[in-house]
Amino acid sequence: MPRSPTLARSRVAESTTVAVVGASLGGLSAANVLHQLGAKVSVFEIFQHGFHERGGALGSVDVSLVQAIRGDTGYTDIRGHGHFYGDLWRYLYEGLPTEAIEFGVDIDEIVDAESTSPGLAINGELRRFDLIIGADGGKSTIRPYVTSSQPTYAGYTVWRGLVPTKGIAGPPRGSAETGGFYYETLGFPVKGPAGQLWNCGVYMAMPESEVAKPTRNRQVQNAMRRVPEWFVPFVRKMFNEPSARFWSECSKKGKVSAHPVAITI
Predict the structure, then answer these.
(1) What is the Cα–Cα distance from 171 to 134, expressed in whole angstroms?
(2) Of the CATH numbers 3.40.50.300, 3.50.50.60, 2.40.30.20, 3.40.309.10, which one belongs to the domain with range 17-145?
(3) Could you give the C-alpha distances from 110 to 18, 39, 43, 140, 141, in angstroms and in order?
(4) Which one of 36, 174, 185, 223 is most buried, by most CB atoms within 10 A?
(5) pLDDT tens digit sequence for 102-131
(6) Class of domain 151-264
(7) What residues does 260 pair with on adjacent strands?
(8) Which H or E run includes 58?
């Protein structure tokens, strides 16, 4: 594994206050680096709890970079071919003071965005900082204060599957091209909080009319995670019977969710 560049360690004034909006991997990475440099960091997350058990995995992780972000060499949990998202999240979360992260906080707006003391309006209260960092995803509250560009659908959707490996052959692998469109399915094993899992995906072209609009409400997203009737027959036609059988079992015993691919112009 190539060694990552050493992160700069010049100190900032301890009185410097920084707000990070969003507590996923990007937000916690920024918060950890700033905390190590001496800033007083406050992280605000709209969801009510942490992401210790959030499903899914990352297939390739630069472990030395993750260690440098947190400022130590404590991350040694290298599990097979993948890294469970919740493990990485917990490692970065534990690198910050507990009081630095506030869950269940929805940002109303930014006040005096271009001043040297911008503020966040939260439930009618104004909290000012020296710097505000937006790391709150596709439906960002912060984005309009930075750019008028909005994400647009790229024409492809990644269907992701997560299911226990016990009794299920996998992972599916294959690629196909038809009508000028390219399709691929692949996966890898990863150790989750409850045991070994298959983490797999199908990358396919889909019309925008068939894609659910992004939402910041994860409960609504969960309600949309029903596999359409055409999905498994389509996989069978494009790839093979073992792939179709895997995704059928995954939809029954695991979780299958659609993730539209967006681009920003």
Answers:
(1) 36
(2) 3.50.50.60
(3) 13, 20, 15, 12, 9
(4) 185
(5) 999 999 999 999 899 999 999 889 999 999
(6) alpha beta
(7) 157
(8) strand 57-58
Please report, for the chain, the start and end positions of each structural domain, with discontinuous segments joined by +.
17-145, 151-264
DSSP annotation string for 195-251: EEEEEEEEEEE--GGGSPPP-S-HHHHHHT-PPPTTHHHHHHHHS-HHHHHHHHHHH
Judge residue 48's burial from the number of C-beta atoms within 10 Å of its C-beta, 0-12 exposed, 13-18 middle, 19 or more buried. Answer: exposed
Q: Which residues contact 163 (CB under 8 A, 6 or more apart)?
A: 197, 198, 249, 250, 253, 254, 255
Q: What are 150-170's pLDDT values in tens digits?
A: 778 888 888 988 889 998 988
Round to whole Å and give the CA distance between 80 and 87.
13
Q: How far apart are CA 226 and CA 257, in angstroms?
A: 8
Q: Is 120 exposed, middle or buried (0-12, 13-18, 19+ CB in 10 A)?
A: buried
E strand or H helix that includes residue 34: helix 25-36
